[in-house]
Design goal:
The complex is a heterodimer of chains A (about 80) and B (about 600). By secondary structure, chain A is mostly helical. Chain A is about 65% helix and about 0% strand. By secondary structure, chain B is of the alpha/beta class. Chain B is globular. Classes of the chains: A mainly alpha (about 80), B alpha/beta (about 600). At the A-B interface, helix 1, helix 2 and helix 4 of A face helix 10 of B.
């Protein structure tokens, strides 16, 4: 899969069942979509594999994320 | 795109479009009957919008106190403002206990009483003894009822060998010259390949279409794909004027601010800082019922007292509350406000607006989940091979307004009954599939080709935004005659733009631009149906509140609207007032 195709797939995986997550991810892509590096794409892929309610709880800091390597991505998603 | 000329054909006994609650429930029925069943979904099943349902599912189990399906039925008919079909409502309320217990056996982790039975909590509109006093009828799994339900049913489907086609988008329905439905064309997102899914029975369980509104609680995937496909295939859409709104969604975002905020002392203010609810509801003020608060907010905005540069929202003021109350009792609300309004409610008011939440109308069905149309003077002619269930369908159990927790019940009961109908209809058919029409994939093919070749066209996001604005401004929670009339003209102008949308990215792999353009084709059908039906219905009933016709008019409007795409016209059919086994619930004023 080309880089562009991989990014397109991540964009589609940012379509969620909860509006809250759609909005957070839409904002993330507007801010960071053009400058996403390999490591961030990798982290985003793992974050997007989380369950809907878990991901929202993590973004709201009601729940921690087990893997500390993903913390940076969560911070980017959390930026109001 | 030569591949389009001869698409691959995949054959199944049954196909289901949509993997939310209704689709998964129907698939269990089909796969466990040994039928070869495919489920097509834009997203992974447990990411369907059913996941957002928190409140619970209604069933008169009577685990905590006496309850009965007749009382539940009464509440549902009353909630529907008598527009719901009483045969379908009786069917749903009688089946509720059965489908909830089945779900429990699938592994659904319901909250429990100490004696091990399912815990039930009170919910708005749930009453005992025909509207006398509140009753505990809602079954829930903490605040993750929808999430738990999807997981339990997805696992059950995996066990039953249901075949999932995840990240596929259905494009159009295939009907032959007799009107029989023989499947759908669909596109695999990963490759852009278009495939014909041929089936003896096709179920749409595609969910809602709340994205037609500027302010909506619905996730981005709720684009009314099933309704768009049905409308393009000549199936009418029923009761599309009825949309449930919540008074306080964050302006510009749609995320809900729970009623609990006003319960804790939150006050609504207009651009002059006035606590305007004192004028509309001198006693209850900000705690008046949802429809009263929503109408008051819409009136303030219409009369120019909205806030912000466009005067299009109001303010929910919590700044007078003790910060401890906000932090301790409303922590989730502070987070939502910080995230989506950019304001800290301890210091500043939250911009809010009445927000679209649920679609009562949809693809017309009977209580067996079979799609029905008007033919030879009858309103219950079954479209062979075609079924619909869940929010995309109109059975009609919600009528003009849905009772809380009946949405999850709807998808369980009618997902199951549609699955049962499909099983028995398929078994009565010849073993071989009916031949596909030569032009079966033409419609989908021509839409894709148009999009591929469009030049000097319109921007998808701009057109989508224009549509959502027109719907919000002209056909919102409180409806004004001049705005509706202008709205019909405006939405048809938007449609012209939808017909010439252009995408720059022509790549094949997960081309989100193409997908969004295809979704907009579906949204616009829903938007037109909503606007035209709302303009035509000259009464106020349930969720349709008109300034010029403030009362319900049973003499002229106790009937369902049916919107037809061809000619953008309406016809009507009577409400089924006769239940299956009990006496009709007679008309009376809906007061709580």
């Amino acid at each position: 899969m080309t880089d562009a195709a991989r990014l397109n797939r991540l964009r589609w995986h940012s379509r969620r069942g909860l509006l809250e997550l759609d909005l957070v991810l839409e904002r993330f892509w507007l801010r960071h979509g053009e400058t996403l590096d390999e490591g961030q794409a990798e982290a985003l892929e793992q974050v997007l594999a989380l369950e809907e309610n878990d991901l929202w709880d993590i973004i709201c800091a009601r729940q921690g994320i087990g893997d500390s390597r993903l913390q940076g991505m969560i911070e980017l998603l959390r930026e109001p | 795109m030569n591949q389009l000329a001869h698409p691959t054909i995949r054959k199944f006994d049954a196909i289901i479009v949509g993997a939310g609650g209704a689709g998964l429930r129907a698939a269990i029925q089909l796969s466990e009957s040994g039928l070869k069943t495919a489920v097509i979904s834009k997203v992974f099943p447990t990411r369907s919008h059913t996941v957002a349902a928190q409140g619970g599912v209604a069933a008169s189990l009577g685990n905590s106190e006496e309850d009965s399906w007749q009382w539940h039925m009464y509440d549902t008919v009353k909630g529907s403002d008598w527009l719901g079909d009483q045969d379908a409502i009786e069917f749903m309320c009688r089946k509720a206990n059965e489908v909830v217990v089945e779900l429990e056996h699938y592994g659904m982790p319901f909250d429990r009483l100490e004696n091990g039975k399912i815990y039930q909590r009170p919910f708005g509109g749930h009453m005992s003894n025909f509207g006398e006093k509140p009753v505990r009828r809602a079954c829930a799994a903490a605040d993750r009822t929808g999430h738990a339900m999807l997981h339990a049913m997805y696992q059950r489907n995996v066990r039953a060998n249901t075949q999932f086609f995840v990240e596929w988008m259905a494009l159009d329905l295939i009907r032959d010259i007799d009107g029989q439905v023989l499947g759908v064309t669909a596109m695999e997102m990963e490759t852009g390949e278009v495939v014909i899914f041929q089936a003896k029975a096709t179920l749409f369980a595609t969910g809602g279409a709340g994205r037609i509104y500027y302010s909506s609680t619905n996730a981005f995937i709720n684009t009314g794909d099933g309704l768009g496909m049905a409308a393009r295939a000549g199936i009418p859409l029923e009761d599309m004027e009825f949309w449930q709104f919540h008074p306080t969604g964050v302006a510009g975002a749609g995320v809900l601010i729970t009623e609990g905020v006003r319960g804790e002392g939150g006050i609504l203010r207009n651009s002059t800082g006035e606590r305007f609810m004192e004028r509309y509801a001198p006693n209850a003020k900000d705690l008046a019922s949802r429809d009263v608060v929503s109408r008051a907010m819409a009136t303030e905005i219409k009369e120019g007292r909205g806030c912000g540069p466009d005067k299009d929202y109001l303010l929910l003021d919590l700044t007078h509350l003790d910060p401890k109350t906000i932090m301790q009792r409303l922590p989730g609300i502070r987070e939502i406000s910080l995230q989506f309004a950019g304001t800290d409610p301890i210091k500043e008011s939250i911009p809010v607006v009445p927000t679209c939440h649920y679609m009562m109308g949809g693809i017309p069905t009977n209580y067996h989940g079979q799609v029905v149309v008007t033919k030879d003077g009858r309103h219950d002619a079954v479209v062979p091979g075609f079924y619909a269930a869940g929010e995309c369908a109109c059975a009609s159990v919600h009528g003009a307004n849905r009772l809380g927790t009946n949405s999850l019940l709807d998808l369980l009961v009618f997902g199951k009954s549609a699955g049962e109908s499909m099983v028995s209809d398929i078994k009565a058919m010849p073993a071989a599939h009916k031949e596909l029409p030569q032009d079966g994939s033409d419609l989908a093919r021509s839409r894709l080709a148009r999009l591929e070749n469009q030049q000097s066209g319109a921007n998808v996001h701009e057109v989508q935004l224009a549509m959502r604005r027109v719907m919000q401004d002209h056909c919102g929670v409180f409806r004004f005659p001049d705005m509706l009339a202008q709205g019909v003209t405006k939405i048809l102008e938007v449609e012209k733009q939808v017909m010439v949308t252009e995408i720059r990215d022509k790549s094949q792999v997960f081309n989100t631009a193409r997908l969004e353009a295809l979704e907009l084709d579906n949204l616009i059908e829903v938007a037109k149906a909503t606007m035209v039906s709302a303009e035509a219905r000259r009464e106020s009933r349930g969720a349709q509140a008109r300034e010029d016709f403030p009362d319900r008019d049973d003499a002229n409007w106790l009937k369902h609207t049916l919107w037809h795409r061809e000619g953008n016209r309406l016809d009507f059919k009577p409400v089924q007032m006769k239940p299956l086994s009990v006496d009709s619930i007679e008309l009376k004023k809906r007061v709580y």
